[in-house]
Structure formats: structure tokens, C-alpha cells
Amino acid sequence: MNKKLKINFLFLFLLIGCGSKKQPLIQDVNGTHRLTSNQIWLSHEHILVDFIGADSIQPNKWNHDTIIKEVMPYLQELKEFNVTYFVDATPDYLGRDVLLLEKIANKTGINIITNTGLYGARNNKFIPEYAQEMAAEDLAKMWINEYKNGIDGTSIRPGFIKIGIDTSDSLPVIHKKLVKAAALSHLKTGLTIASHTGKAIGLWSQLDILKEIGVSPEAFIWVHAQEEDNNDNYLKAAKLGCWISLDGLGWELEKHVEKLLFAKRNGILDRILISHDSGWYDPQRENQAIRPYTNIFKKLYPELKTHGFTEEEFKVLLSVNPSKAFLIEVRKSPSDKNSQ
User: Fold this and answer.
1) CA 126 to CA 128: how far, in whole Å?
2) What share of the chain is helix, strand, coil (3-state, %, to 5)?
3) Pairwise CA distance, residues 24 & 326, whole Å
């Protein structure tokens, strides 16, 4: 083999090797995208929520045109702030409607991310009867199937796993099952687990289950962490690697400012997510009371600037952190990695 041919083969080998390296991906209702850390995210919002309960919910009665007409002005406002990713945190049996989300994404140009999973908070009101008796492994198979083949007969795939628990030190059996199913699903899909948790008392047992199954806390978002009163628990959670979501900015501001200043002083801004938990259209209401998705930009950021927050720190909260939190990648616990 002559020298020129050897060089060509070497170049081809390097090209194939580089091309085969997996690129981190984000999954929205219109497909997968390569991960970038310079886009603006809203990491916990809602477009439609129906609180009627799993035994009574009737998605076929929702009028998409009516819903879109109501919510569109609030979503159009986001153009001014260059929002690229909108994480819709409404789970199945609470108003998840992926075809509605797809229509809205196509009308607005916003990348909307939906989810798989089940929501056990509020005394299991939103858990369907079939899930009560199913094993965690069987639930995981259903959620993995949605990721691989699409949701409700569509080609739309989830971009994360959404579960919910009622805050307690010792989780009810069904909530342990949800966490286990989420962990098993993560290991097969790489989808991040976002768990409606609230106070830290409900966090540690979830992280223990993840550890038992071999999932890193880096694959877990502690949702509604703003409800925690002891800020030292944020330090503990951040040290473990879990994401801490302060997502009530559609409702309150002062508490978030104090907690973000605490995070900055203690060097854990790189584990914090912020969002509004705002919206939403409620099919059970005659008169809608939709809250805007803009408090972060119009109220929070100006307030943080008066306390010395920089543009770069704000970018960490709204771009860098969520792009890492929602990337599709299997994240195993350190002990499990070492055993491979």
C-alpha cells in the first residue's frame, strides 16, 4: 500500500470515528435536536391542565381551536424574549395532549417538550386504575414504548419523564413504584426524570430508589423545590448532583430572589432551574384565568440585577442548566459505572 493510500484510509477511519460519536440530543414534539447551551428555556410550564381526575378525563371533548385562541397571546409574548424551548410539564391523565402541543409548536415556532410517566400527587387522583396493580417494570415498558414508538398512536415522542408524589418521609407503595418505573425507563431511554416533590422530606427516599437501581441524581429534577424552607437542603441536593427546580415564578417572586441569592453565595447556581409553572387553559372553567410566562424576564431579572446578578449568571439559569438537565443521556450512579 503506497503512502498516499495509507493517508486516505487513515482519514476515512478518523472521519467514520468522529461521525459515529453520539451527539447529545433534546427531544421536542417535532423531533430531536442537537444540544446547544445558548438557547432560552422555560423548563416547567403548562398549556392545558384538566384537574377532573383519571376516572373522568375526556380528552376527545377538548376543542383545540378554542384552547389555541386562548393561550396563543401568552405564547406570542415569548418572541420578545427569544424563548426557544418550552417544557410542558402536564402529565398523562392531567391534560397531556401531544397533538395540541404539536399544533401550537408549529404556529409559534417554539420547541415544545412533552413527557411520559404518571402523576401520583393529590392522593393518586390522576393515576388510572390499570396502573394501581401494575408492576414498576410493566409501567416502565409502557413509558419506554412511548419514547421508542410515539405517544397515543402518534409519532410524537416524550423528551422527559414526569412523575409526582405526595410529600412524605416514607413514600406510599404506589409512589415508590412510580419512582422505580421512572428509573428503569431512564436506563433504557436516557430521559431525565422530573418529579413533583415539594419539600425536601419527599426527595431523599426518591434518590435512594434511584441509587438502588443505578441511576445518578444528575438525571433527576426536584420539582417545586421552592417549597423547601431549609436552604441547607439545597446544598445537600446540589452536592449529590440533583437538579433543583424553583418553578413558581408565575405566582411569587420574593421567595425566589432570596433562594437564588443563597444559591449564588454558596456556589450552586449550576444546579438550579427556574420557571413559572404558569399558564394554563382549564377545560373545567368557563372563564379562563391564564397567567403569563414572562415574570422571569419582566420582574425577576431586573430584581436580580439590583443584587449584582450578571448576564452570564442569568444565562446559566435559563440556558446552560436546562440544556444539561434535559439532554437525552443515560446517567448512571458512580457505583454502577464502576461495575461496568
Assistant:
1) 6
2) 45, 15, 35
3) 10
Q: What is the pLDDT of residues 35-54, one digit of tens each?
A: 888 999 999 999 999 999 99
Closest CA to 91 of 130, 60, 125, 61: 125
Phi, psi of 326 (to 5 degrees): -100, 5
Residue 98 DSSP one-character state: H
Cα→Cα distances 284→49, 62, 142, Å: 9, 10, 28
pLDDT, average across residues 171-188: 97
Indicate if the alpha-carbon torsion angle 186, 189, 194, 197 is positive or negative: negative
Sheet hosting strand 193-196, strand order edge to edge: 115-116, 160-164, 193-196, 220-223, 243-246, 272-274
Cα 69 to Cα 103: distance, rounded to the nearest angstrom: 12
Whether pTM > 0.90 for this model: the answer is yes
Exposure string of 36-72, with b = 16+ CB inside 10 Å and e = fewer, is eeebbbbbbbbbbbbebebeebebeebeeeebbebbe
In whole angstroms, give the CA distance from residue 85 to residue 120: 26
Tens-place pLDDT, residues 230-279: 999 999 999 999 999 999 999 889 889 999 999 999 999 999 999 999 99
Distance CA 270, CA 275 (A): 15
Q: 106 vs 90, 190, 240, 332, CA distance in Å? A: 19, 26, 38, 35
pLDDT confidence bin for 336, thresholds 50/70/90: low
The CA distance from 130 to 92, in Å, is: 13
Rounded to the nearest 10°, the torsion over CA 206, 207, 212, 218 is 130
CA-nearest of 134, 141, 131, 139 to 188 is 141
